[in-house]
Amino acid sequence: MNLSDEQLWERFQRFYSEFPSAGLAIDLSRTQLDSDYLQKMASPLQSAFAAMDQLEAGAMANPDEKRMVGHYWLRNAALAPKPEIRREIEETLAATKSFAHQVHSGAIQGQRGTFQKLLVVGIGGSALGPQFVAHALGRPGADRMNLYFFDNTDPDGMDKALVAIGPDLGRTLTVVISKSGGTKETRNGMVEAERAYREAGLDFPPHAVAVTGNGSELDKTAEKAGWLRRFPMWDWVGGRTSETSAVGLLPAALQGFDIDRLLAGASACDQLTRRHSFQENPAAQLAVAWHAIGQGRGAKDMVILPYKDRLELFSRYLQQLIMESLGKELDLSGKKVNQGIAVYGNKGSTDQHAYIQQLRDGLNNFFVTFIQVLKDRERKSMQVEPGFTTGDYLQGFYLGTRQALWEKERQSITITIDQVDAFHVGVLIALYERAVGLYASLVNINAYHQPGVEAGKKAATAILELQSEVAKHLSENSSRGFNAGEIAEALKRKGSMESIFKICQHLAANQQLAADGRNGIATRFRANS
Amino acid sequence: MNLSDEQLWERFQRFYSEFPSAGLAIDLSRTQLDSDYLQKMASPLQSAFAAMDQLEAGAMANPDEKRMVGHYWLRNAALAPKPEIRREIEETLAATKSFAHQVHSGAIQGQRGTFQKLLVVGIGGSALGPQFVAHALGRPGADRMNLYFFDNTDPDGMDKALVAIGPDLGRTLTVVISKSGGTKETRNGMVEAERAYREAGLDFPPHAVAVTGNGSELDKTAEKAGWLRRFPMWDWVGGRTSETSAVGLLPAALQGFDIDRLLAGASACDQLTRRHSFQENPAAQLAVAWHAIGQGRGAKDMVILPYKDRLELFSRYLQQLIMESLGKELDLSGKKVNQGIAVYGNKGSTDQHAYIQQLRDGLNNFFVTFIQVLKDRERKSMQVEPGFTTGDYLQGFYLGTRQALWEKERQSITITIDQVDAFHVGVLIALYERAVGLYASLVNINAYHQPGVEAGKKAATAILELQSEVAKHLSENSSRGFNAGEIAEALKRKGSMESIFKICQHLAANQQLAADGRNGIATRFRANS
Questions:
Q1: Phi, psi at residue B135, to the nearest 5°?
Q2: How many angstroms away from the CA of A84 is the closest CA of chain B?
Q3: Which of B152, B197, B297, B463 to mutate to test the interface with A (most CBs of A within 10 A)?
Q4: Where would you tag: which of A99, A349, B148, B198 has the fewest CB atoms within 10 A of its CB?
Q5: Interface pTM (ipTM) of the complex?
Q6: Whether A135 is catalytic
Q7: Which of B417, B429, B374 has the alpha carbon at shortest distance from B252?
Q8: Tell me: the pLDDT tens digits for A42-74?
């Protein structure tokens, strides 16, 4: 890849494409993509376009789960394959905006007055999108509502969020988001939130909203208790592609962001990424470049480096969108392929001071995606040195790093957007949704299921069942202590000694059991007296 | 690796080690480490121990930069090789605590009253440690001072922090941290902070503190302008190992964290990690396990998954510590090795909902380091279901995920700590500092320099110089517009057409130039009239 300046300029002219309708440009010039590879991918790419057309038309694009894949309809409901789907999308969007308006105007209030804070209880697809968008568009301290999360089943994490909310729980709206309505972390968060309201002398239902599938456990709970509102989720929207459903739009609208512009950006990008042409389709460009760089098997990690603080959480959002979509054991024909692309990164130039050392000098096991934002800030910049603003430096560091990596044959893609606003956040979300879908077709996998996540949940359930058995045994034999081996023997669970030890160790650390000192795996545990 | 339950229990008994003096345990049982590998590494490990002894005794352990490496002295100043170093460490620590006390008591105030907020201006090693520690130990809303950062040269990011600080700038202490005193991002942040104080009708110096090398550009600026305080940094402390210097301790003390306990934790861990024995040294265990899993060449990415919200930023901290230390082109003998280990991750069980799908089913190009925290929370937990707390679920998800990965031959290490407090944060920092140092010896590289970061900075400087030339040319020829090619020709910089285009594009987006429409690389740019 040791190219002359002239050759690099040639490549730039060829592989730099502007898409003005979306305020977007893509630059693939600093990758190994070439004519031969494009020719090789021409036919697979046409198949990917055809599959995408079918998906948008309502095909069972997620065959394992026998589901349609409809996130593209969310920003253009006229595309929905059935009138009732179109109506549901339109009604939900209208209800979202109307509810946010009522909250802002004070027509709907908490028990202590106008809602000023927003607690989102959700995990994965029900948190990463809202977190990314809040960070990208928010001005903490100046937004309509300040945002807090329960995005895990960590009790201390919840306590920390409650401390930050402070005495304002009676003016805090809690939105519980779970598509299935059965996610344990979210359910636990809801129960802890209920307790917090109760302890503050407040009722939970007049502060609570659900976003969930119709008829789910959460939906029934909310209906029975008389929560403020329930917003629907549908089985044709996956969690990781739900930002343009109520999952993402409700928190965004409540914070005061312009969700119409976010949808307009996604829609503008969708129009581009429907085109059956590598040159004219920015998502196809990304998908083919990923394929070329990673040899169609994820051989290089994807490092996401937006040179913009507001996009710092984009990599986390993309970790889910890309890794959960592409990280698959089997392809569509059932062949074992162990696909995927690892994603990480935070922001430039900050990350230059963290790990550009390794990127330039160390393992060449990655490619960088730079995200460049042309507009620096709202107000006019001062000059921090004669002729230069802080934004000029930021731009200089991006170009300098791109150059320094290229000198060492490290590849990069650059995505340029005009500015970070609701429209361009919609563009970025839609761009990657489509690129992931197209890439999945190129490597012949189902991007829309997640069969690998069940095993861990099942194993966790087994651990909790074992915990019950252990607690019962110790409670029924409270006269003395037992070590893990003895408990396992008594329970006839000799294969589970290690888990029993770890369970007891954790319970003892939280005063749910007593431990006889600290003696490693020989430690004896007993029921609390 | 298809082992029976009995074999797994055998491995657990063998590879699970508790270190009670540090409230720490390490479990390597779910890795490929075995007796043969341990035997193979026995002699290299002894060499690594010897090199570490020399480093601690004051050897030039960073030969390229001809510097000692003294971060271990910071928590046990008696180890320092010279009395003047010992004195400086002790005096700086005393000054740090005294200053924090004066700020808290109101003996030192801002122009609008007692300091309530803290703005840290720093990047890389001057931000990642303070950010990690603040997130781990802080209770936003209840800490002595609320913390904000300028950790980049993004003007909009600075504006966002200033909005969050709000009208309280006269009660905001700004700590500018730069070891070299010449880091551009930090310098720019300082200049923008100065302007913000000025615009608020305030003087900057009575709100400003510097942490920097004696005699640096920043040090001189602070001295000349009469800032509140200056705290020293030393050339024998690297940025990425500076958390136990004033860089980390000053922000921590100002927030009200117990920095003596943080140092005690680091010191307790240091005592363990000085031992010349794999069995008795937790850092040696990590280093050897990394070597075994990644075949001594970083063949697997390191995924950091603390099951604890407070440790969510540990992976970012470790990205710098590990990747900047280990990502090296040349080994100590000058041989090209392109070493490194890629690091990413956020927290469990949250990340299970993001990318465990790929970890279990997709590419097997990683190993996980689980961090388990035994203590769930400060207060007593409620039962969210009969017999189970939210913390039991968190533990269950950790064990379930570990099991689900192992079934598919994905390796993991588990680090267990008793709780997240200042002591254990010190333990974790010291543990990884030492593990990185030992691993570097095992692969024969210098862990303490960063020769690869200069290239990007130099290239950035060249970009800014080019920007000046472009601006000058357009200003001197303001009667008409020029496209990138024409500018390059006029400047006799035909090799820089691409950079010129990108510079003009950015300047035009920020009203520093005018663009004739939007026409890709053919766009003409002109000076503002």
A1: -70, -35
A2: 30
A3: B152
A4: B198
A5: 0.98
A6: no
A7: B429
A8: 999 999 999 999 999 999 999 999 999 999 999
